[in-house]
Amino acid sequence: SGIQALREAQSNIDEIASEAVSQADEQLQKQCETFDPAAYRDVLYVYMLLEDELGLCDKVATFAQQNVLRRSQATLARFAAVAEAAGAKPGSSRQVPFVELCRSVPADQFLECLSATMCALFEVLCSYHGMLAWHLRAVSKAPPATDPVAENAASEAEAEAAAAAAAAAAHERDTCAVIAAALKRGRRTVWDLAARRVAALLSSDSLATSGSESYMQVVEWTSSFIAAGEAFCGSEAGALRQRLQHQTLKYFGAQHKRSMGVLKDMLNKEAWQPLPVEALEAYHRSARAQVPASAERLKAATTVKQGDFEVFVSEGVERLFSSASAGGSSNGGAQDGDVSGGSAPTTPAASGGGAVAEQDSKQAPGSDAAADKAGQDAPTLTAAALRIGTSWKRYAELMELLPPIAPQIFRGASEMYELYMLSIFQLFGKREALAMELSANTSDAQAMLTPRLRTALLRIAKERGINVTHWRPVRRAAEDNGGSAAAAEAAVAPPVAEKKSSGGMMSKLGARFDKLSDKLSARTPPKLSRTASASSSGGGGGGAHAVALPRMQTALEARQGQPVSPGAPPTPEAIADASARSRMEAILSSGNMYGLKESSIATESLAWVAGEVKGMRQRLVAQLPPGDGKAAGQFFSRTVEAADDLREHVLKSVSRLLLNSAAFAHALAGARFDAREVGDRHSAYVDVILNSFRQFSTKVSVAGVTGGVANVMFDDAIAATAEALVQGFAQHRKCTNEGRALMSLDLQTLSAGLRELRHGELPPNLDLVAEYIRAFYLPQEDVLGWAARHPEYTITQVVALIKSAADSQGWKRKDRNAIIERVEAGDLI
After folding, report:
1. Model pTM score
2. How many CB atoms lie within 10 A of CB 368?
3. Does the pLDDT value for residue 1 go beyond 70?
4. How far apart are CA 685 and CA 690, in angstroms?
């Protein structure tokens, strides 16, 4: 019947429609993976005929979300080790939860897996974005203009066809507008789902075992992925950004702790020998090669307005998340070091690419003269210094990629610099200068510390939990143990066999100088104690390492809070501590010039690190919040700048140990300045001083230090000599006018001899001695004014000058005592 025929026709139509919808859905799912405008238009026409635009919108959103889940699951299934671990059949990992797949990714394949996952998800976003852009263009397409003359001339059929085409175009625009609005609303859902997939993968334990190069690549890729997602959906990706920051803090904390431990071991085993020039060249090549081009792209991309996803589409997935850019570091850190950097590269291949090395070789044609000159101009570096410099560069890159956690990263970098600075002071500086209890010895040592250096060292020691009150001089230890020198040595360090330096010629020369110094000391009177604090006059006993090293707290004692029992078997920590102490004693022994060369290398390397750090100041402070930026500025001005102060302090400490200027006062005590006639011969102590300076110059030249270091030490030796001369002159109670003239002759002779050794002009320190000699001739009424204008002399020295002048010029006792009382009271005006 007719009704049955209609029913069959309707059934056939429904089947045809259902089949068309199925084919359209299948094609639509492909379009959500890779958008093709021509193929998608057929799908659109099907739903327009069915008048199911809302259904198309729902299916587009559903297919896009399914693509995110399906492609990320399939990508991880290729890397997951669940199937093999559980003995399941191949392909069964597709049914494993995504979180379990993330946990089962092998560490050596994590970087490659992350790259593949991000590439797959980014392609889904690009397809979604391409589909949205096509709809927006369709909506904005203007309808064709109508020509009234042509309309009048056209037939009725043609007019109906044109009207139908215009209606279809309008319908298509309206449909595209509806779909475009739905696609805009669904962007956030698609992105959140993709971000959760990446966040789950970043929570994998495999990430914690990544090396520095691998992890920096992870941070760079994830930052690019976040920037792309924010541009895709038009809003911030807070969840994924917080996950990255949380994982980075966790990773950075663990790796920084490991790095500090490695640095401590390096410092304990440091021989303080310079690295070859090639190490510095490799460092610079590595720094240039490691400038990530993707970071520059990320910086440029984040400057564009939100929603401009085309910037990332034009970059391409290969350039944004390609595993090839990992440079072969996808092994999870098997070859690269921690986040602070491993050993310095020494070859072009290890330092970051043959192209850069080849360019460097072209820029510097090989000439032996040029190479020698470059070696002379190159800074002196140690392995620890080079590691710290590399660490700061890596930390700076991490701060730029993750500004919210930049303060924690900057603090970690600061700790490395502070550890290096404090370690150099502990070994080569006057350790007792930081002691709280003052004595004649500690006051002399503190006079060699600038306020900036002292403040920085005390702060670093306090933050590291180091009690500097235990850093006492040897003389104090001797008093606490009965006053014997042997007891003093036992108090500050256990008996360790003396080790000679392997310097050969230097060791023999040092031993010979020591024998000469012992003979000289045997013929000189005992050292007189000083009753007033003055600038240090040096002396072999002034430094903590002149007789024996202060005892370092072992790692075991630090943990247990008590010394190790003498009967207990030696632990690995105790053995390592004893080895380090023995090595330190060998470095600081007199046969090794009290560590002159090593201390020079240490301070020069610290100066290089300080220069590298100061060069990053503006770059680093820009990444910090205002409050942390202010604290960082104080770190640069008060701690980094103190590197020069520490350099001078260490060099002066070694200089005064080598010169032994304390013996000058003893030699000067044998001179006579109460003569009634002026001779034409200088005093014998002048020859003693000049001979000491000749030995001093020989030691410095044999040590092979740089010219700048030699100048600093020679100038300080002259300063120490000037202080010793003033102190020696002040101890001569009887002095005539002729005696003062002899002092002037002695000073002129000494200045001429030192000028010859210095090969140039002398520093103005000897003017301190000349002024003290001239003050002997001052009238009685001018003495107080002179003392007020010259606070560089101690009260003891001024009083001695007054007494000597009063006896020589016949002052009244009452007037002399009145002047002395005013000087001691500080009433000089």
Report:
1. 0.69
2. 7
3. no
4. 9
